[in-house]
Amino acid sequence: MLRLVVLISGGGSNLRALLDASQDAEFPARVVAVGADRQADGLAHAEHYGIPSFVVPFTSFDSREAWGDELLAQLREWQPDVVVLSGLMRLLPAQVVAEYAPAIINTHPAYLPEFPGAHGVRDALAAGVTETGASVIVVDDGVDSGPILHQRRVPVEPGDTEATLHERIKPVERELLIQTVLDLANGTIDLKEYRA
């Protein structure tokens, strides 16, 4: 059984999808804890399913490194096989990446390497493209620059706003995340191949 710790910053819709999927006894992964960098709404999903959670508030620390040290201490408590970034809106500090990579995956609302960064949906609209997408990647020290595990195109429709386009991308992100977790659990994807 693959042990997952999921890190969030917001509403946790991808987290909810993973928790829903893991209710199936046949699903080969379990979320053992949920962490956040603030009092995120998505922590309610963990509470609903009886999953332990922790908060390491970024603003409580003098530096990103100090925050990273505490985040690392929390992660070690749960001994995850894979750390899932699911809407965590902060770059992981180097010491966290060094300890867990390549067993850190992230969802992103664009067809990487197109439109990396915090505003992938907005950037796609600003560029006037006719399609964007969703990706699941291995986290490295860059910004959305790690190896791509799964991705799928999503069309941009006339009149799309950032909100409407993002709402169409989210279900694709969720499907890709669940497929990636399944592939990791059954060995179709071997993260050891991505060691630096």
List keywords for this structure.
seven-stranded mixed sheet; alpha/beta; 6 helices; 196 residues; Phosphoribosylglycinamide formyltransferase; Rossmann fold; globular; transferase; single chain; purine biosynthesis; 2 domains; 22% strand
SS-derived structural category = alpha/beta
Total helix count?
Answer: 6
Tally of strands: 7
Mean of residue pLDDT values: 96
Order of secondary-structure elements: EHEHEHEHEHEEH
Strand order of the largest sheet: 3-2-1-4-5-6-7
Parts with pLDDT < 50 across at least 5 consecutive residues: none
- Please indicate the count of domains: 2
Give the CATH architecture of the largest domain. Answer: 3-Layer(aba) Sandwich
Report the major sheet.
7 strands, mixed
Shape: globular
Beta-strand residue percentage: 15-25%
Fold topology:
Elements: E1 2-8, H1 13-21, E2 29-36, H2 43-49, E3 53-55, H3 64-78, E4 82-85, H4 94-100, E5 104-108, H5 120-127, E6 131-138, E7 148-155, H6 162-186
Describe this structure in words.
It is a single chain. This protein is α/β, with parallel strands linked by helices. Helices cover about 35% and strands about 20% of the residues. Helix 2 links the parallel strand 2 (about 30-35) and strand 3. The longest helix is centred in the C-terminal third of the chain and has 25 residues, at about 160-185. The chain is globular and about 45 Å long. The mean pLDDT is about 95.
Summarize the structure.
This protein is α/β, with parallel strands linked by helices.
